[in-house]
Amino acid sequence: MLKHELRKKYKNLRAGISPSQASDFSLILANHVLQIPIWDFFYYHIFLSIEEQNEVDTLPIITLLQGKDKNVVVPKVSGENSMDNYLLTDGTAFRKNKWGIPEPVDGITVPEEKIDVVFIPLLAFDALGNRVGYGKGFYDIFLDKCRKDTLKIGLSFFGAEEEPITDVHENDVKLDYCITPEKVYAF
């Protein structure tokens, strides 16, 4: 299937999930994070959910990471297709950007090469670890700046597409894992 077809399909599927279901699924995903061998690292980048898009609520994962004394890093759009990364602290103030994404107003920046684990927003993924985002390329550009051994973990309410995504580009970055309410996929 093509990316634009998958975007449409999964936006519709996500729109059909109630707020209560989304909350329940998000808690299940946070519990599944415990199954992945990521606990010996220091810097964990995680997106902040777009509530209006019915995305996975990442707050339970952030709470889990903070409870394990991990350094949590959150993104802020800094250019046409680029992001800066800010250390999440008790004093971090947020403001929503033009897409409804909560972003840190300012703070301590963390360079990409320090980030060990990245939790990635997505709309769909296939059994090969290819993912479909919103199509702006922010995460592909960001992940290209990270170390090659940085772990990339997708979060989805839905399982893998059975058919491979057919219009994967050479600069598309594959996932190492994807967590769904039903299972954890390893690629």
From TrEMBL:
<keyword id="KW-0460">Magnesium</keyword>
<feature type="binding site">
    <location>
        <position position="55"/>
    </location>
    <ligand>
        <name>substrate</name>
    </ligand>
</feature>
<dbReference type="GO" id="GO:0005524">
    <property type="term" value="F:ATP binding"/>
</dbReference>
<dbReference type="GO" id="GO:0030272">
    <property type="term" value="F:5-formyltetrahydrofolate cyclo-ligase activity"/>
</dbReference>
<feature type="binding site">
    <location>
        <begin position="3"/>
        <end position="7"/>
    </location>
    <ligand>
        <name>ATP</name>
    </ligand>
</feature>
<keyword id="KW-0479">Metal-binding</keyword>
<keyword id="KW-0547">Nucleotide-binding</keyword>
<dbReference type="InterPro" id="IPR002698">
    <property type="entry name" value="FTHF_cligase"/>
</dbReference>
<dbReference type="GO" id="GO:0046872">
    <property type="term" value="F:metal ion binding"/>
</dbReference>
<dbReference type="Pfam" id="PF01812">
    <property type="entry name" value="5-FTHF_cyc-lig"/>
</dbReference>
<keyword id="KW-0436">Ligase</keyword>
<dbReference type="GO" id="GO:0009396">
    <property type="term" value="P:folic acid-containing compound biosynthetic process"/>
</dbReference>
<comment type="similarity">
    <text>Belongs to the 5-formyltetrahydrofolate cyclo-ligase family.</text>
</comment>
<dbReference type="InterPro" id="IPR024185">
    <property type="entry name" value="FTHF_cligase-like_sf"/>
</dbReference>
<dbReference type="GO" id="GO:0035999">
    <property type="term" value="P:tetrahydrofolate interconversion"/>
</dbReference>
<feature type="binding site">
    <location>
        <begin position="131"/>
        <end position="139"/>
    </location>
    <ligand>
        <name>ATP</name>
    </ligand>
</feature>
<keyword id="KW-0067">ATP-binding</keyword>
<feature type="binding site">
    <location>
        <position position="50"/>
    </location>
    <ligand>
        <name>substrate</name>
    </ligand>
</feature>
<protein>
    <recommendedName>
        <fullName>5-formyltetrahydrofolate cyclo-ligase</fullName>
        <ecNumber>6.3.3.2</ecNumber>
    </recommendedName>
</protein>
<dbReference type="InterPro" id="IPR037171">
    <property type="entry name" value="NagB/RpiA_transferase-like"/>
</dbReference>
